[in-house]
Amino acid sequence: MKTLALIVREMLLRKAAAALMILAVCLPVALGTFFAMASRAMEDETRIIQRDMGLNVLILSDKQDLAEYWQKGYAQETLPISHLHKLADQSVANRLIPMLQEAKDWRGMSVLLTGIAPEIFKGGQKKKAVFGRQIASGNLILGAEVAEHLGLSEGDSVPWLEQEFQIESVLHWTGTREDIRVYANLEQVQQILDMPDRINEIQALECRCEAGDQDPLLILRQELTPLLPGTQIIRRNRLAEARRQQRLMAARFHQMAGPVLFLLAGLCISAFAAANARDRNEEIGVLHALGFTGGRIANLFLGRAALLALFGAALGFVLGTGTGFAMAPSLFPISAASLQWQPTWFWQALVLAPSFAALASLAPVLFAVNQDPLDVLRES
User: Fold this and answer.
1) Between the CA of residue 284 and those of 281, 293, 371, 380, what are the distances in Å?
2) In the chain, where the domains are located
3) Phi/psi-derived region of residue 319, left when phi > 0, alpha when psi is between -120 and 50, beta in every other case
4) How far apart are CA 78 and CA 210, in angstroms?
C-alpha cells in the first residue's frame, strides 16, 4: 500500500488525534497571520499619526539668530530657493516645504504673511500631499483669528498690499501661531516682498527613525550640511523623538511575537507527534516485522505531520485573515481600509508550516522507529 494511502487511513482512524494536530498548526498560523496584519496596519497607523504630528526638521540660514527666530516666529535671513533641488538625493528628510514669511499689518492687526508651495518629495517620489499647500495666485488662506478679527469668510474678495485677493478658505482654530497666519502663493509673496527666488526657511519631515546610539541630529547634519552650505539644521526633538519611539515600539512588538508563536507551535507539534508515535508502538513493531524499513516508517509519521500541517496552515490563514479584516476597523480606524489579502503569505504558510511540523516531529519519530521491534512486540 502506498505511503499516502496509509497516512490518510491512519488519519481517518484516529480522527481526534488528527484534529488536535491540525489545531496545533491552525492556531499559531491564525495568530501569526493576524499579528502580521495587525503589525502592518499598526505601522501604517503609526506612520500616519506620526506624519500628522507635524514637520520636525527646520532649515534656516546660518546667519539667523535663533533667539530672534523663536521670538518672532519667522526668520529675517533668507536662503536661495535652489537649495530645494540639492535635497533630491538625500535619505534623512522628506516632504520638503519652502516658506517665505514676514509680519505684516492688516487693518491694524499684525498677521504672519506666509508664502508657501506644495511639498516636494525626495528622490522624485509621488505621495499624497499633507503639509504643503497649492494656493493659486491671488488667493489667501486665513488663520481662524485673522478671519474672525477682520470679519472675513470663504469667498470674500478683499484688497491688501496693493493687490486684490480672494479668500480661498479659513482654517480651524488651533490655539497656536497658525491662527494669525495668512497663507498665499509663494511666488506671489516673493513678488510682494521683492525677494525673487528667495525663501527664509525649509521645513521637512525626518524619515530616519532607526534605533542606535548615534545622535539623530548629528545624522541629519552630517548628510544635509554638505549639501546646503550656509545653513543651520534644527530638529524639533519632542516631535521627532515621539515619532521615533512609536516606530520602535511597533518594531519590537513584531520582533517578539514571531519567535514566541514559533516556539509554542513547535512544542505543541512535537508533543502531539510523540503521543502519536507512543500510541502506535505496536503498529510500528508490526510494520518492522512485515519488512518496512525504519526510513519508510519515519516517512509515514513525518508525512502525516506535514499533511495535517498543510490543512492546519490553510485553515489558520483563512481564520487569521478573516479575523484581521473583521477587527481592523475598530483597532486601526485610520489604516483599516489599506489592508489587503496577502496571497504571498498564504503560499508561505503552505510551505513553511508542513516543513516546520515535520522538523518538530523528527526527534520523537526517530526515537520511536529506532526501537527494537522485538522489545516493542514483547511488551505488547
Assistant:
1) 5, 10, 9, 11
2) 3-49+245-379, 57-235
3) alpha
4) 32
Residue 183 DSSP SS3: strand
The answer to whether 327 and 291 are in contact (CB under 8 A) is no
Residue 22, phi-psi category: left (phi > 0), alpha (psi -120 to 50), beta (remainder) = alpha
Residues 6+ apart with CB under 8 A from 225: 231, 233
Collect all residues with Cβ–Cβ distance below 8 Å to 316 and sequence separation of at least 6.
25, 26, 27, 28, 29, 30, 32, 33, 349, 353
Residue 277: closest CA among 378, 365, 373: 365
The three cell numbers locating residue 12:
481517518
| CA gap 55, 178 in Å, rounded | 14
* 123: region left, alpha or beta (phi > 0 left; psi from -120 to 50 alpha): left
Question: Which residue's C-alpha cell is 470679519?
Answer: 151
- Buried b / exposed e along 252-261 (16+ C-beta atoms within 10 A): eeeeebeeeb
d(CA 10, CA 4): 10
**Sign of the four-CA dihedral 83, 88, 92, 95:** positive
Q: How do strand 157-160 and strand 198-199 relate by DSSP bridges?
A: unpaired
Report the alpha-carbon distance of residue 301 to residue 281 in Å, rounded: 12
Please write down the HEC assignment for all residues of 128-176: CCCCCCCCCCCEEEECHHHHHHHCCCCCCEEEECCEEEEEEEECCCCCC
Contact 336, 53 (CB under 8 A): no
Short-list 271, 276, 204, 278, CA closest to 243: 204
321-330 long-range Cβ contacts below 8 angstroms, 24+ apart: 321/33, 321/34, 321/37, 323/30, 323/34, 324/33, 324/34, 324/37, 324/38, 324/41, 328/37, 328/41
Mean pLDDT by 10 residues, the chain (380 residues): 68 76 84 78 59 73 91 90 83 85 93 90 63 81 93 93 92 88 94 93 75 70 87 76 62 69 71 66 63 70 82 89 79 66 84 80 67 56
By DSSP bridging, strand 139-142 and strand 198-199 are unpaired
- Look at the pTM and tell me if it is higher than 0.70: no
